[in-house]
Amino acid sequence: MKLDITTLDGEGAGSVELDETIFGLEPRADLLQRMVRWQLAKRQAGTHAVKNRSDVNRTRKKLYKQKGTGNARHGAASAPQFRGGGRAFGPVVRSHAHDLPKKVRALALRHALSAKAKSETLIIVDDVKLADGKTKGLVERFGKMGLSSALIISGSEVDVNFGRAARNIPQIDVLPVQGINVYDILRRDKLVLTRAAIDALEARFK
């Protein structure tokens, strides 16, 4: 698969041959769904909690004697059925993360890249570097390129000026190639890869 390379100014900069085993797969929705679910579950805080009957500061004394009153049998006032008592079966602090095999995660990333290539929403740029960190100039360049919702993947490090200019633009995400992930790829309309990012991805999946 061959794609043209462009610059941030919209000028041609040659072409690149993409690896079919990374960008030429038939996208599988089930793999992408499993990966997105794994990512969202892994980052969920899980800090929700309530007070159960052992956490409530109430007397543990038996309310009244067991027999002879005609009333129901009760123990401590911290039981869940009483007002001010503990919560029964409430949420506790826990991790929502679940396991997903490493090979499945790697395959899902390749399918996400292939999905963008197949839908023709993959753009290859020569490099993402700016002489200054002005957002206004970058917005104009993105307007010429038709980028209103995009994930931009640079090389091993994001250019300081480019990252500073892009962070104020809504629906534009910039990540180094090490941070590329399925969820961020799918949540934006277009994927922009630099030449260095493609080389790093091909080396990663060899």
Automatic annotation (TrEMBL):
The keyword Ribonucleoprotein applies. It comes from Methylobacterium iners. One of the primary rRNA binding proteins, this protein initially binds near the 5'-end of the 23S rRNA. It is important during the early stages of 50S assembly. It makes multiple contacts with different domains of the 23S rRNA in the assembled 50S subunit and ribosome. Forms part of the polypeptide exit tunnel. This is Large ribosomal subunit protein uL4. The lineage of its organism: Bacteria, Pseudomonadati, Pseudomonadota, Alphaproteobacteria, Hyphomicrobiales. Part of the 50S ribosomal subunit. It comes from the Bacteria. The keyword Protein transport does not apply. Gene3D superfamilies: 3.40.1370.10. InterPro entries: Ribosomal_uL4, Ribosomal_uL4-like, Ribosomal_uL4_dom_sf. Belongs to the universal ribosomal protein uL4 family. GO terms for cellular component: ribosome. Keywords: Ribonucleoprotein, Ribosomal protein, RNA-binding, rRNA-binding. NCBIfam families: rplD_bact.
